[in-house]
Amino acid sequence: MSTKEVKAGIIIIGNEILSGRTQDTNLAHLARVLNVWGIKITETRIIPDDESVIVDTVRHFSSAFDYVFTTGGIGPTHDDITSGCIAKAFHKKLIEHPDIARLIRSRPTSDEVMKSRLLMALIPEGAGLIDNPTGGPQGFYINNVYVMAGIPKVMQAMLSTLEDQLNGGLPVLSRSVTAFLGESQIATELGRLQQRYSVVDIGSYPFTRDGKYGTSIVMRCTDQKILDEVLQEACKLIENAGAVPENIHG
Amino acid sequence: MSTKEVKAGIIIIGNEILSGRTQDTNLAHLARVLNVWGIKITETRIIPDDESVIVDTVRHFSSAFDYVFTTGGIGPTHDDITSGCIAKAFHKKLIEHPDIARLIRSRPTSDEVMKSRLLMALIPEGAGLIDNPTGGPQGFYINNVYVMAGIPKVMQAMLSTLEDQLNGGLPVLSRSVTAFLGESQIATELGRLQQRYSVVDIGSYPFTRDGKYGTSIVMRCTDQKILDEVLQEACKLIENAGAVPENIHG
Prior knowledge:
- The structure is a homodimer.
- Helix content of chain A is 36%, strand content 28%.
- Chain A is α/β, with parallel strands linked by helices.
- At the A-B interface, helix 1, helix 2, strand 2, helix 6 and helix 8 of A face helix 1, helix 2, strand 2, helix 6 and helix 8 of B.
């Protein structure tokens, strides 16, 4: 385990997300899992099925972050262009990977359908495979880029196989507390608390429940001792503002 | 109404989205509404509460797209840095806007809380206001960048006031049809259909229902006549593959 911060960029590929047809849920799942593994998502881009945009984004993210994860565009139809774009981004040829081809050929079908299915066996030369516990074709990785399916169930299954392969840093721990107070009622004191604890990322998120305004304070840091101190301070700050700290998670 | 394609970039600002704590729903709402107004979302970036990243992204998007919409980071706490970053991106000073300040001052509170609330009146010099039908402080726009709240209810209310102000192109219309067929069973013919109708964006999305594999075909285009032709062809293609076209929307 590395003690430095390990950063990831996520690339979500698909016109269906940008058009609002499909609500993305892959980012939130990736974030929760990678966080436990000590990998912090630093930026996410949602981009269309457009070759030059995919190629440019993959190249930029691959050099900017420790890890890159992509979702979407690795199926058998004309709009599945991700594998070709990743190959192009790294100046590699697309080759038929024997293990994926064998899996696909193990399910007999007509010649035409088989030809379409075998498109899913084309990956960049030199890429390694990401297992697919749902039984479908594998994903792949090349350099620091991990290429997974867009279907949440399949993406989650593929991701689950990567835990031992990825080298994360210290996991980011979090604490949270809520209070029935408007954000502005604690804003000054919370700002001071953030200044005193610059290593802790303190977030303030308003909510309404039962017609009353409330605020969630979320604290994130790799150091448990410091985090627990800040949580105590946050509870005190809420009490000083005349409210009761609730839903304390820590 | 413009007859050329009008493009938008979306910037979702907030550590809470990148950490997986909060599931973003603003993109899908923006996409559905902007689409009806003839504005197509071309790229979305989800970025942290980090000044240099926000400033760079705003500048890049503002020059790359016709419109830019941001959500998040305009509240009264220390982690709300969006307004200052937008000012910096356009080399403007932050000034207290009298209309927002008047609204905030109309609700009496202690001096300290008022001071925090008035932070929400600070916007870049020269910016116009975006009404906030929920009754809270307004959002703002400067050049082609529209700056809105992150809370979905507030963002949606702000967006709803912009319809007459934005100049969209031809709305993108869509048609869809589903069939209980695997994607690979129609992949070849669907690819040919896409080649014949290059102005239509044809997407293929697998699903499972009642334990059976299915495929949704979604067609998007600004020309209704062409779109209806393609829908008919898609239905024929499904029948030729031995299945029944279902859930025809058009």
